[in-house]
Amino acid sequence: MHVIMQMLWRRRGSVLQKDRRVMCDPYFTKIITSKWSAFSEAKDKLHFDWGTNIASYDKHWVGLSINLQTSNVTIFDSFITANPTEIHVDAHMTPILKSIPYILEQYVGFTDYLIKEGERTYALNRFQGIYHNNRGGDCGPCAAKFMEMHSNGDGKEEMSRITDKVVDKFREQYAMDCYEEFVGDFQVANEAGMK
């Protein structure tokens, strides 16, 4: 998944930067989740020490589109049964929704003029009606494809047209693209060898 996300960033990075979007590494969300108890009890949330501890991956991948201008997080999930209810989603997302405004302000200097003093938080919506993968094991590539489509301006209609056959094809295509991008390209291979 790291390779796929790097490839997508290299290909779509300029579009993402223009729209002020970012593809977050799952380590980032795991750090937030693992520190949630301490953060929620901290008096000075803006200067909270997030440390350098990086937790291991979780078993399920989703795409998160964080819109800095509207303070909204959209979830692109191809395997809803992994988190079937709003309670499950809230358990995973509350730490992110309530922590991210402070992290952005502390480390990036980003402040939204709409944020009032007091508790800062982001809203959440789960993108409904998109492809659902019943066979499992494809959530990572599906999350990457949803994020790629979203950054390309595609919406629910296009994402709902994905089928298991289409997933098989883009999994294969991602594998070939990643190989070409990082191994088959002599410049990338040479740059990696020089470091």
Automatic annotation (TrEMBL):
GO biological process: proteolysis
Keywords: Hydrolase, Protease
GO molecular function per UniProt: cysteine-type peptidase activity
Signal peptide segment: none
InterPro entries assigned: Papain-like_cys_pep_sf, Peptidase_C48_C
Domain Ubiquitin-like protease family profile: 1-150
Family to which this protein belongs: Belongs to the peptidase C48 family.
Name of the molecule in the record: (rape) hypothetical protein
